[in-house]
Structure of Cytochrome P450 2U1:
Amino acid sequence: MSSLGGPRPAAGEQPGARPHLWAAGGALLLCGLAVLLGWVWLRWHRACGIPPGPKPRPLVGNFGHLLVPRFLRLQFWLGSGSQTDAVGQHVFLARMARVYGNIFSFFIGHRLVVVLNDFHSVREALVQQAEVFSDRPRMPLISMMTKEKGIVFAHYGPIWKQQRRFSHSTLRHFGLGKLSLEPKIIEEFRYVKEAMQKHGEAPFSPFPVIGNAVSNIICSLCFGQRFDYTNQEFKRVLDFMSRGLEICLHSQLFLINICPWFYYLPFGPFKELRQIERDITCFLKNIIKEHQESLDASNPQDFIDMYLLHMEGEKKASKCSSFDEDYLFYIIGDLFIAGTDTTTNSLLWCLLYMSLNPDVQITTSVICWLRAPVCPGWRTRAKVHEEIERVIGCDRAPSLTDKAQMPFTEATIMEVQRLSMVVPLAIPHMTSEKTVLQGYTIPKGTVVLPNLWSIHRDPAIWEKPDDFCPHRFLDDQGQLLKRETFIPFGIGKRVCMGEQLAKMELFLMFVSLMQSFTFALPEGSEKPIMTGRFGLTLAPHPFNITVSKR
Ligand code: HEM
């Protein structure tokens, strides 16, 4: 029969071998064609005036080398992967800006990514062209984990607006940014102080207690409950969360954006990520279920209660509403994760910088004099402890109303935020239509990374950007300077929704701890690596501290 359709097998050839050869040849041809098309497509893109960048490879873009096992990798343009993992992608991208300019691009698979490394391009994109630059990427890794629901990764549009407006006003109802939340924060930090005092003069890691305390604030707003520092289940959830944020930008997980089925691989970061997702989902779903069972419509206690009631109201009023249980789950997840890890890391960085800069904690005229050349006027500046003593004293609890009289303390927190930049690449944005940014064409669907870290280390904006110098946020009279280039919470329509809460927490928690203790690194210990552990957030490397009571 084969003689009818195809060429006859040659003498000595197995019957049926030819069709296999034809099939293999066809497959090869198709692959070749796909590579060629990919190549033409990438070259065409570059020719269209997109920002400059390294040469992509067909199909895989600039991340193809990650498909090769680490020990076999040659040095492609992004290094072996270990280079980016070691310094953090934000530093690596800032270094690339020196080669390609402040706006440059690369490809993940066929997806164009544009990195904005300076304040002007970030402001032009996120503020002046906010309608175009405020969407979030439709990328497999993000879509699989978030279903593109919630607030953080939801698409820019009417549903995101409704959900964000409702969430923000509900959190405000429960005290976000208001004096009514103060007692809760102060109370929580009483527990922290007790826990710290138990260590006496011995060194300890501040990570678990600070993480638990910060999380308890968002938990009491959202779930109406706090978790004891000895609660092992909660501790596990917090550990999972910070691990999840650390690995989610792991270079291997980027591969999911090229081949989505990698998500289901039964090993390495893929398996770990799925396990983390399962555990956090289970924890949050249980809490929502408990709320549904005990809901008292006349007396809503927290965010979940308010959302459930709003959901019911919307259901009664109209048939199509974006308020549903699924959305509630993702919003709660967003608030819990965004509200815990960011503020925890900021506070940990504060403790680390305080331990490394005793002259900021206490007045030591010799140290101040020595530092004067680095940070002019240093010697004459009030120090954090002095300010606390003068404005608050030793017995009274701090209040937000003290803030206006404590510019040095505020400048110190801001300087720690500037240097640590806990959300170094913000959260990826996406263009919703084709546009032009500073002369470059940015096509619709481009992923945009605002490199906040590089803005806050830009020598054109900050004198000696790598030095710790709270004074840069003060004017000649010692009053706080509002600097428009200081944007740790991002800018534009997607600016952090928890900015007021975070500022409030940072001030009250930092002052509360500094009022009670002097922090130091254990004697003889090595200075911790200050680059941070890169993930979606930038956490300090593990360190121990000692506290002495004041
Ligand atoms: C020091 C602490 C914090 C820092 C530095 C920080 C920083 C940021 C940054 C840089 C973004 C991304 C902005 C962008 O996409 O351009 C963001 C988004 C967000 N943050 Fe925060 N954040 C902090 C605390 C919080 C807290 C306590 C909450 C909880 C209420 C929160 C909730 C959110 C939400 C919901 C978004 C997504 C907003 C949206 O996409 O519309 N953040 N944050």
Q: What stands out?
A: The chain has two domains: 33-134+441-455, 149-421+456-549.
